[in-house]
Design goal:
Cdd1; 173 residues; Helix-hairpin-helix domain-containing protein; two-stranded antiparallel ribbon; mainly alpha; 2 domains; DNA polymerase, domain 1
Length: 173
């Protein structure tokens, strides 16, 4: 190579664009084989990722990463896979702390209390107890929870939207 990497002029935007279209990288990618900069005590390793920007790290140093490991991110608790595994209302799939509070407000204290309940009647009881009409998706959550506690598979609440709409249409008026 004829010029030191720091002395070489940077590639212009059109040059980088042409290089990307040709399947190669722009001029900065050629710096991979360059030696250490003048006056540098430790050799520098130059990395040219696919997006074309050059990152420099001292030899042996690691690039900074986002903290996304399990010890840095609070993971949601595991939900029960079978009705017998549910110890609290929050263990039931589709039931979080807010919905569990709504259920406790209408007298459902344990997961076993949900078995053989009418989910539509539960929805009406919650609406009456709170004095406001809740989002109909809450009814979907109740359907999913009751079906799960009756031995069904853990199913996302949105799978019951059609059933709920059909029920409300049949019982309207």
């Amino acid at each position: 190579m004829d010029a030191h990497p720091r002395e070489r002029p940077a590639a212009t935007r059109p040059q980088r664009r042409r290089a990307r279209r040709a399947g190669g990288r722009h001029q900065a990618a050629e710096r991979l084989d360059a030696g250490p900069p003048k006056g540098c005590r430790r050799p520098v390793r130059t990395l040219a990722p696919a997006h074309g920007r050059v990152h420099r790290h001292a030899e042996g140093a690691r690039p900074r990463r986002r903290l996304t490991t399990a010890r840095h991110v609070k993971l949601p608790p595991m939900k029960a896979r079978h009705a017998a595994d549910a110890a609290t209302l929050e263990d039931i799939p589709n039931i979080g702390p807010s919905i569990a509070g709504d259920l406790r407000g209408v007298g459902i204290a344990t997961p076993q209390d949900l078995a053989h309940q009418d989910p539509y009647a539960l929805y009406e009881r919650v609406n009456a107890a709170t004095g406001q009409r809740h989002d109909p998706c809450l009814c979907d959550c109740f359907i999913a929870a009751v079906r799960f506690m009756e031995g069904g598979a853990p199913t996302p609440w949105w799978h019951y939207i059609v059933e709920r709409k059909r029920h409300f249409a049949d019982h309207a008026g």
